Amino acid sequence: MQETNHENAFKIYFKDSIRRITLNSKRFENVVTQMNKLYNEDGLYHPELKIQYVDEEGDKVTVSSQVEWDEMFAGVGDSRPIKLYVTEGALAGKYFKDGPAPVVKELYVKDSTETKTIVEDVKKLSVAAPRSLGRIFPGGK
Question: Is the pTM of this model over 0.70?
Answer without folding.
Answer: no
